Amino acid sequence: MAKDTELGQASRHPPPILPPSRSRRSTDPFIVICRCFSVVTAINALLCVCANLLSAIRSFRNGSDIFGGIFRCYAIALAIFVALVETEWDFILKFWRVLDYWVGRGMLQIFVAVMTRAFPDVIWVRRDLVLLQEIASYLLLACGVIYVISGLLCIGFFKRARLQRETSRENAAKDLEELERRKRELEALLIEERD
User: Fold this and answer.
1) C-alpha span between 26 and 170 (Å, rounded)
2) How many CA atoms lie within 13 A of 74 on its CB side?
3) 101 lies in a domain?
4) Which sign, positive or negative, has the C-alpha torsion 147, 148, 149, 154?
5) pLDDT per residue as tens digits for the range 138-193
6) Do 101 and 45 reside in the same domain of the chain?
7) pTM, entire model
8) Is residue 2 part of a domain?
9) Within this chain, do residues 45 and 121 fall inside the same structural domain, yes or no?
């Protein structure tokens, strides 16, 4: 009888509803390294934007090098595009599938590095600008070469597989939390109906 009373009291009070646990970002070292390299590459692309922007302004101010200024404007647009690609934004990768592969991404970075390095200041009037162009172009060139070599070694495929596994694991954890929350709600409704 006492046991039935305890069960009756326990069934009247629903179990406490715990807040859903926040899904932690995976600390997979390989994914972290890849994200850090993407940040470094995006910073190098933005450095190329600065170098090309200063060169374009200088070309248009002189008035004698209009074509060089236009060339620099194209280099600016492509360098911004390289920085956006490094965010791995789905909108961009949906239309440019070749950039989802590291070899294609590396080739684009090498192209932008070559554009940044092209047409240096021959008369060496602005050595600081030439130095900025060289630093930006060689850094982005190094990132592009690393991407191409890594792509040929299928490291990009390995990264995509690990990201997909991480995403499916996070989705499964969210689904499990949702099912547990729904179960607690249904148990609480069932207890209320018994009373």
Assistant:
1) 9
2) 10
3) yes
4) positive
5) 999 999 999 999 999 988 888 888 888 888 888 888 888 999 999 888 888 888 87
6) yes
7) 0.71
8) no
9) yes
